[in-house]
Design goal:
With 460 residues, the chain is mainly alpha-helical. 73% of the residues lie in helices and 6% in strands. Strands 2-3-1-4 form a 4-stranded antiparallel beta sheet. Strand 2 and strand 3 form a beta hairpin. Helix 4 packs across helix 8, helix 9 runs antiparallel to helix 13 and helix 12 runs antiparallel to helix 13. The longest helix is centred in the last third of the chain and has 90 residues. It is rod-shaped, with a radius of gyration of 64 Å. The two termini are 49 Å apart.
Length: 460
């Protein structure tokens, strides 16, 4: 433990000995560095920084031609804010500043630069204030008054540039809206004329009334057709029974039409009376007796008249059947006619609806764009700029460069570092043998004795 402390003590003494040995070199390096930095610092022309605080308010997400205005939020708001920061350093804004202050005349170094805008941008910095929508615009110059003037002028140039962009957008939108409104006006006129022409050609002056009347007729004729068909079927059934009964006399008695026919019933009653009379006569006379023959002749006459009446009834019913059949056909034709007319009206109504919707749509869009056109025309005369100068730049009282105290402190640190580095580098490069161990390592032979070097004595 003691040996380690002793070795460490000897080691530190070696460092101190090296420093003492090369102290002039250390001092010279330190002085050179400190003096050089100090002279350069105090000879450097001071640079002043002026700051203008600008407020960038949120603007609507929509533009002039949008129909719904909504403020930008989230990522869109961040992108819009970052875009504005880049606009401050844009070439049109800087060019406007250089031209307005004639900086090419006042600043010869700018006139000599190949790109005055890029050269001036080295003096400009933009710094957003954290957590707000405020932005600090910094401009540096060797003259504090000029720095303040440049900063304020740059802020005003940025505000004017933003306003000009908005006004230009409004003018472009106004021109676009004017063109669209004129085109839509022609479309509205064309669609209304087409609608009116179609109304006149299709006779749809009173569409609803005509369609209602047609539907009513269709319902009425359909009911009449159903009734005529039912009567025709009923008559067809009766006529078929009557014809079948006429061919089979035994079924004639049971035919409903014969039963309900008064003349035939009267003739049948007379036949019954005559047959009763004939039966009575047969009880007295033979069949060939004149009275019997007369009665039989009367019976035959009655039967003939019944057949004739049945034939007449068949012809009559047949005629009535043809009338009912013709009426049914007429009703069916009327139903088909009004059905076709209803379908035709429906097709015309569909076409009419398409033309009317197109006309209404064009009219609504025309009204919206016309309203927007008026709003845009009005907005051109309003100051809708979302950029405000909150705090103009004041003339700075102290320079931002050079920072003399910081430079001198760094010069001291760097001077010491350079001095010590030179000292130990020179010591490292020195190959002089100083100890017996170094002699043994260098020569490769053992050391027999060490003769100390004494300083020469002074003569008395």
């Amino acid at each position: 433990m003691w040996k380690g402390s002793r070795a460490e003590e000897i080691h530190l003494r070696n460092y101190l000995r090296v420093v003492q040995k090369h102290l002039p070199l250390l001092t010279s390096a330190f002085v050179v560095v400190v003096v050089t930095v100090g002279v350069a610092t105090y000879l450097q022309r001071p640079v002043y920084r002026a700051t203008t605080k600008v407020l960038i308010e949120r603007e609507g997400g929509g533009r002039v031609v949008n129909f719904q205005e909504a403020p930008l939020t989230g990522e869109a708001a961040v992108e819009s804010f970052q875009t504005q920061l880049q606009v401050i350093r844009s070439r049109p804004v800087i060019r406007q500043l250089i031209d307005s202050l004639t900086l090419l005349t006042r600043k010869p170094e700018l006139a000599r630069a190949s790109d005055p805008v890029s050269s001036f941008l080295r003096r400009v910095s933009v710094e957003p204030v954290r957590g707000t929508r405020l932005v600090d615009i910094h401009v540096e110059d060797d003259d504090p008054k000029v720095a303040a003037e440049l900063t304020n002028t740059l802020a005003h140039a940025y505000v004017n540039q933003n306003l000009n962009l908005k006004l230009q957008a409004a003018r472009d939108a106004l021109a676009w809206l004017t063109t669209q409104v004129n085109d839509l006006k022609e479309k509205v006129n064309t669609s209304e004329q087409s609608l009116q022409q179609y109304r006149e050609e299709s006779g749809l002056g009173s569409m609803e009334e005509k369609q209602g009347l047609t539907i009513k007729k269709l319902v009425d004729f359909n009911a009449a057709y159903i009734e005529a068909k039912a009567r025709r079927l009923e008559m067809e059934t009766k006529l078929a029974e009557l014809k079948r009964a006429a061919q089979k006399p035994e079924e004639l008695e049971s035919s409903p039409m014969v039963i309900n026919h008064p003349l035939i019933q009267n003739l049948k009653a007379q036949i019954v009376t005559l047959e009763v009379q004939r039966s009575k006569l047969l009880n007295t006379y033979k069949e060939k007796h004149p009275e019997v023959v007369k009665t039989q002749s009367q019976i035959e006459e009655m039967r003939r008249r019944i057949r004739e009446e049945v034939d007449r009834l068949v012809r009559s019913q047949d005629g009535e059947y043809n009338v009912l059949k013709a009426r049914e056909a007429a009703m069916l034709a009327a139903v088909n006619q009004y059905r076709d007319e209803t379908q035709s009206l429906s097709k015309k109504e569909i076409r009419h609806g398409i033309l009317k919707r197109e006309a209404d749509s064009n009219q609504q869009l025309y009204d919206v764009l016309l309203k927007r056109l008026k709003e845009t025309s009005l907005s051109q005369g309003l100051d809708n700029n979302n950029i405000r100068i909150v705090e103009p730049a004041m003339v700075p009282t102290s320079p931002v460069r050079p920072r003399k105290m910081l430079n001198m402190a760094l010069a001291v640190v760097i001077g010491l570092a350079v001095g010590f580095s030179l000292v130990f580098f020179v010591e490292y490069m020195d190959n002089t043998v100083r100890t017996p161990e170094q002699a043994e390592r260098t020569l490769g032979v053992p050391v027999l004795a060490v003769i100390p070097a004494f300083p020469p004595r002074r003569k008395a």
